[in-house]
Amino acid sequence: MRLERLQQNIEKPAPIPTKKETLRAPKAPLEFVRNVVGSSAAAGSAEFHIYRNNRRKEQNRLDYIDAVAKKEELDEAYRVKVNEQQMKEDSKTAKKRAKRSRQKANAKKRKMAKKTDDSDDSSSSDDSDDDSDSEAEEDTEKKASTEEDSGKRDDAEERTFERSFHPRSW
Question: Could you tell me where the Polar residues compositional bias lies (predicted)?
Fold first, then answer.
């Protein structure tokens, strides 16, 4: 029904309600007090209502102060939590970045070592038999160490494969 009424006149802008502020500051207290009762005068019949209104205004003011203090406390706790989380994420990112750079440097070293090994192999054929024997021994030692490393990597890959497809890891 309301939608039909809005569609009848499309040119007219539709009113969009705005969200009211949940926490409003109370009116500022008056700078002077009107109905001042002297110490010698007795309380009249209207004094109770005046007292009640003053008490209500003061209670509203105190409630507002408490609500603002609680909101600030919650905001501060939130900021602390966000900062801690950000620091954790930053440290984790830095750690992973360092690991990536280490892996990159190690790969570069291995590549350079492989190039030097290849160049040593080509130059060893030019040298005498004694040099080629010592280089052959070094090559076999290097191959053995790389085979051990690759064996370690294969074991690690198998473990991660098993872990990723293990029913409990799902």
Answer: 1-10
